[in-house]
Design goal:
By secondary structure, the chain is of the alpha+beta class. About 40% of the residues lie in helices and about 20% in strands. It contains twelve helices and ten strands. It binds phenylalanine. The site of phenylalanine has 10 residues, from β9 and β10.
Length: about 350
């Protein structure tokens, strides 16, 4: 039996050493020290031996078992390390390869311009507020002092949802929302979509964007309006830009003005962009009408204010020298990717 053990030991050790994979190693383990293994068989057969021989054989068998277990553990570790090294070698990462570029979207030019306008007014201490696109006729017209027969109320100009609800035709109803139930000082801008029943052409769209501005406090004058819009125009179009106020009429401001900026292509000399005028109209403005303050519960004897509304498409067209408003809404990537 001792001879047998020595043979098993030698054979097993050489098989373990020769195993070239974890599977082969496992096969060797099963063959010798598994439940039906050769070494296990010897250990089982020891019961039949004389006590003296049993002790000797037992000692040797245990020694062989220890040897095999150590050799298996050793080999397993070696195989594992080799497997890891093989993987590291085969899965090598070449960090010098160029990356896979992701197609990246960009802001729509109208958003870029709107963001810039927001930044400028936030810098002057304005807060940005929002109003709904579906608005009451009251906020869009009545509270804004528009008489019942005002032409803008006409079915041909306004998208009505029912008699008292409409798609707002201007951002000015946000003035009403910003003032009602509030105590001045109020200093807000409100960008958003507006709707008018216009046919589409190079300068008209039934949906377009405006930014409303409103300041109400004690002692606000036309000088504040002029100073604010002047600083705005210089911030947006460049330091040399000048503004010009022309008398106009809006129901909700008195006095009212249309505001032009000096053409930033020719600087005022007259060119194709400004059609020889030297000036480009960008917004309507004025001092908030006392009736409007009163309709919002603000005492016009104590407070005064100014308001303005500018067309974002118009500003963007001027700024990027775009000659057709339809380009903004056709979503042609060849156009949009230029900005
Ligand atoms: N709401 C006016 C328009 O759409 C612009 C405006 C706003 C004028 C505020 C004066 C004051 O034309």
């Amino acid at each position: 039996m001792k001879e047998e053990l020595k043979r098993i030991s030698a054979e097993a050790l050489s098989e373990i050493a020769g195993a070239s994979s974890e599977a082969e190693l496992e096969a060797a383990r099963v063959k010798y020290s598994g439940k039906k293994g050769q070494l296990t068989a010897i250990l089982r057969g020891m019961g039949a031996l004389e006590p003296e021989a049993r002790r000797e054989v037992g000692e040797l068998a245990n020694a062989v078992r220890g040897e095999l277990e150590a050799a298996i553990a050793d080999k397993a570790a070696t195989l594992k390390r080799a497997a890891l090294e093989a993987r590291l070698a085969s899965e090598k990462l070449d960090v010098t390869l160029p990356g896979r570029e992701k197609a990246c979207g960009r802001l729509h030019p109208l958003h870029t311009v709107e963001n810039r306008i927001r930044e400028i007014f936030i810098g002057m201490g304005f807060t940005v507020v929002e109003g709904p696109e579906i608005e009451s006729a009251y906020n869009n017209f009545d509270a804004l002092n528009a008489p019942a027969d005002h032409p803008s109320r006409d079915f041909q100009d306004t998208f009505y949802i029912d008699e008292t609800t409409l798609l707002r035709t201007q951002t000015s109803p946000v003035q009403i929302r910003a003032m009602t139930g509030k105590t001045p000082p109020i200093r807000v801008i409100s960008p958003g979509r507006v709707y008018r029943s216009d046919d589409v052409d190079a300068t008209h769209s039934p949906m377009f964007h405006q930014v409303e501005g409103l300041v109400v406090d004690k002692g606000i004058t036309m000088a504040d309006l002029k100073g604010t819009l002047d600083l705005f125009a210089r911030s947006l179009f460049g330091e040399e830009t000048r503004t010009r106020f022309r008398p106009h009429n809006f129901p909700f401001t008195e006095p009212s003005a249309e505001v032009d900026v000096s053409c930033f292509v020719c600087g005022g000399k007259g060119c194709r962009l400004c059609k020889g005028e030297g000036w480009i109209e960008i917004l309507g403005a004025g001092m908030v009408h006392p009736n409007v303050l009163a309709s919002c519960g603000i005492d016009p004897e104590v407070y005064s204010g100014f308001a303005f509304g500018m067309g974002i498409e118009r500003v963007a067209m001027r700024r990027y020298n775009i000659n057709d408003m339809r380009l903004f809404f056709e979503n042609d990537v060849r156009f949009l990717s230029q900005f």
